[in-house]
Automatic annotation (TrEMBL):
This is protein-glutamate O-methyltransferase. One of its GO terms (molecular function) is protein-glutamate O-methyltransferase activity. InterPro entries: Bact_Chemotaxis_MeTrfase, CheR_C, CheR_MeTrfase, CheR_N, CheR_N_sf, SAM-dependent_MTases_sf. It comes from the Bacteria. One of its GO terms (biological process) is methylation. The keyword Transferase applies. Residues 18-264 form the CheR-type methyltransferase domain. It catalyses: L-glutamyl-[protein] + S-adenosyl-L-methionine = [protein]-L-glutamate 5-O-methyl ester + S-adenosyl-L-homocysteine. Its EC number is 2.1.1.80.
Amino acid sequence: MDIDSEVDQGTQNALLGLVHRHTGISMTAKKWTLLQGRLRPRLRALALRNYRDYLALLENTPDEVRNFINLVTTNETSFFRTPRVWDYFAQHYLPRWFDAHRGAVFHLWSAAASSGEEAYSAAMLCEEFRARHPSFQYQIHATDISSQVLASAMTGQFHGRSIDGLKAARPAMLAKYFRASAGGYAVIPALRTHIMFSEHNLYRPLAAREAFDLALLRNVLIYFETADQECVIENVRQSLAPDGMLIVGESESLSRLKTGFAFEQPLIYRNHGAPHDRTA
Ligand SMILES: C[S@@+](CC[C@H](N)C(=O)[O-])C[C@H]1O[C@@H](n2cnc3c(N)ncnc32)[C@H](O)[C@@H]1O
């Protein structure tokens, strides 16, 4: 019998529910076909007979949850995605931050980093800034719930659409910060050393030593329900400096949410809530 024939409603609901339980991503019953398509190759690889067997495996095998998370997350990203945000970052944010925090290290969090294009984009612009201000120091922490995309991000190797996009948008950056390597391009070590990668679920507080000056939480809130968005945003806020900033994705807005952030300009918010006691 084909693995896709007659998946009972209970199994569908249970798998959709597990997506929410493990990632916070909300998938209504209408998304079953999408979820089924993502899981099908895994069922085949495991030679399972049906989705009920996969559900049982997931419930009894904690290690399989990691594979499940890798399969159900959407990891679309690109270098310098939403150029307006990067213009703001390079031309307004960094010069102002540097003036206000002389001698401090700039800490940025790429909070749903996917395969790393966002973190490396930030690093390239930080390097450009450092070339003009040699005392500028920065550290980037890139996190994602998907171990698969993070493993790819850590290699610093890129190819295909990712590189084509960078080549078209900012060819000078490609030439300066990448070297041709087997089948693609590798980020130069001088850039890579500024970025730390770790697995992290946004529904939990991040254990970080330093408060972040800026968090990029882009193109991930769209997958969450309102109450879940508020929970994630508060977790991120707790990791920010009192004067920290938050940048969201281009189709995201905090305007209808209860958060501790004040609007600065579209997509850009300022920490406005009660300070967090980092020693607690
Ligand atoms: C569409 S990508 C966005 C990547 C990048 N921020 C950008 O804007 O190009 C969304 C990322 O969010 C991650 N994600 C989804 N749910 C998450 C969660 N609960 N905690 C952490 N990351 C999550 C996914 O694994 C995926 O890599």
